[in-house]
Specification:
Order of helices and strands: EHHEEEEH
Helix content: 25-40%
CATH architecture: 2-Layer Sandwich
CATH superfamily: RelE-like
CATH topology: YaeB-like fold
Number of helices: 3
Number of domains: 1
Strand order of the largest sheet: 1-5-4-3-2
């Protein structure tokens, strides 16, 4: 069974949590449903969870609610822990490179802070 963690900045804010709190109830419920599925299923379907193309090991949680498409980006810390560090509402075919750079930057920040302990 996998665990999903949300990245926190050094100041304690949580970008993914803030994004989820901004969603209408129905959309937030669907995101939570997908997150539970990913935690509970041994191999989640790529419809909901897959590696982002052309990245340094950034993975995306994929959620669609009617015509709205959301991506929660993050990385696999070890085999059983997924750290989600960025979330967007997708409006283009590809995830914009600036959004992927944010996820990669937060990954490095997280790992650097963890290794400094």
């Amino acid at each position: 069974m996998k665990e999903i963690h949300f990245y926190r900045t050094e100041s304690g804010s949580c970008p993914v949590e803030e994004f989820l709190n901004s969603l209408p109830s129905m959309q937030a419920q669907k995101v939570v449903w997908v997150l539970r599925l990913i935690e509970e299923v041994e191999v989640p379907p790529t419809l909901y969870f897959k590696k982002s193309a052309n990245t340094e090991d950034i993975w995306e949680v994929r959620v669609q609610v009617e015509t709205d498409i959301f991506r929660l980006l993050g990385f696999i810390e070890d085999e059983q822990v997924i750290v989600l560090n960025h979330a967007i509402q997708k409006t283009t075919v590809k995830i914009p490179s600036q959004e992927l750079k944010i996820a990669e930057s937060r990954k490095l920040n997280y790992l650097n802070r963890k290794n400094a302990l």
